[in-house]
């Protein structure tokens, strides 16, 4: 062929970089006819700030942010930049490709391990549409390629997806599971967590055991050798996260549960990823990021420019229905009656909960793929689609589904999330993350300002959560107002002035009377701001990222200083969060070789949360900090010890065998009462003495704090806590309010970790503490007295104060630090 016949298509002049100009030059196909006002505003605002490293574009779900993202991607390509457009999953990759085709925008794509138009991406002729896994996995191909800009679509759902790429999961049927737990067993067998550890190893899914970092550090090299020998670096299910973690196991959390072992860093080491350096521009497209803390937790950024165009796009009308009844079954019956012949979608927190709906619908599995979702969306029949813990990534817009049933309060899928939520119980993190999951779940069926519909709430836990101002402040303003409107409608329904059937029919049918009613009231409600504590937590998240970066890079002294500072600041918000940071300060000190400081930090953390673990100590080389001022417990015990030393030792011996489960609860109650006295507290048994009140009460009058214990140590391992058991605790709370109304309480059921019956109504603060925790408290008390006896001459009051602090026996921490579960959480425990 003669070269004279070749014609090269070389564009003349510079390419436009203004995204609106790019849109005006497109050949439109499909459903796109024009650009909406909010889309135009977002693009203009971004264009003015395009040189910034980070821009958040916040548009309500259904507001057209995909088109906005595509135009920004093309604008950056026209600067000759290598650009990634990143989606949460392959389904959304394909949807984005379809949207680009409708706009005649050229693109490359990388997903399902295959390329489309790879050369054009390499030469910066097109941007590449891909998924989070391709970008963030440890051996991802984009780590080795030039990337100048990256657009994160649906950034509000990115946290779990990104963390999963840095998380190593070893299933309980993997030989590496038993080899790992064998190393940890010797430590746990000598602690109050021993039986719980064995439960987890034996397959109890509800058990989540955090391996203290001093144990992880001691075994890190051995674990690395075991894992490499076991082929962890060649197994397709583990090789990608292993690439990130292989050289830093001593800085990773290890969790053991019945499902397996999870290994993950407490903070994602974004500093190791080139996409987050100063040479890369990042655009985050988000619909439902409810707080700045959620964004900082996901991407490690603060003070990012936020573009939030005005307009009604995505402002869907929602009615929240608080399902009626005393238990889950009655809530379900109410939901089914209200749904009738209408289509609906259920999101359940677990496979077992989802089974309760299977007779009414079909459970979606990952292998069903997008085809199953599309079939449901297109169906005109009365169907129910059941999703298991899928709070993001599945969209059912418009008329495809207008009724969503949220079955229980959504919880995190990872062991890390579950540990923070339910074990260590850091309330600030728990509330913020729960809000994020709720908003994501609601976004499954509400995709635009015309997607009006109903959200039904099944379970007392989720109903109480959304009604609490302390929780709702983490939700977007419009959701808060819709919840308040729905709350007022509860009374109208109960008074039979209107029925839920009528309300549901009107909102789904688009009745004008509903529109007028909704518009006349929705703006009358005030919203709860997340407040100063949330801003404080945001600042802590950023500082935590700095501290962990030092730890990851081996700058242990700098890490230790930062973690100590974090712990001091966190104490003002949540002492449990402070303890978490103090534990990591202990690791930093241990890695730097400062054993004394490490032990001090580890012990202080454990004294606040026993789950964090107490290291073994060589008492011969241990020394206390000077200048200890004795407080009321030490003063009382020193006086008693001087006069009744022998009696106190005999009391210790007498109750030693009484911290066991069984039918004989009287001896156990007596043992808990005596233990309180031996800790220097006022301790007595109101129910025995006065035939009212809790079984045992520990009182610290000097600080106006108390602990109330209702013992149910006669429960069998296959039992549960009944409505009457919980009612007893609620009655005790009323009794306490009358007699000790100016005290701060800890209220607990003492017994096995068992399910709380659905019809029971525990308070948010009622705890379940296993008897093993009191056995551990007893053992520490024995050690206290042994050390007092063997420590020789000296100020007895000072000695008691030092040993009380050392063993974590100061009130109220001696109770609040014990491993516990919230009774309200145990309503969702699976049998």
Automatic annotation (TrEMBL):
| GO BP term (any one) | nucleobase-containing compound metabolic process
What is this protein identified as? DNA phosphorothioation system restriction enzyme
Q: Please verify whether the record's keywords include Coiled coil.
A: no
| Taxon lineage | Bacteria, Pseudomonadati, Planctomycetota, Phycisphaerae, Sedimentisphaerales
What Pfam family is a match for this entry? Answer: ResIII
| Keyword Cell division set for record | no
What are the alphabetically sorted keywords of the record? ATP-binding, Helicase, Hydrolase, Nucleotide-binding
Q: Where is the Helicase ATP-binding domain?
A: 46-307
> Which InterPro entries does the protein's record reference?
ATP-dep_DNA_Helicase (IPR050615), ATP-dep_Helicase_C (IPR006555), Helicase/UvrB_N (IPR006935), Helicase_ATP-bd (IPR014001), P-loop_NTPase (IPR027417)
Query: What are the protein's GO molecular function terms?
Result: ATP binding; DNA binding; helicase activity; hydrolase activity, acting on acid anhydrides, in phosphorus-containing anhydrides
- Where on the tree of life does the source sit, at the highest rank? Bacteria
Name the Gene3D superfamilies on file: P-loop containing nucleotide triphosphate hydrolases
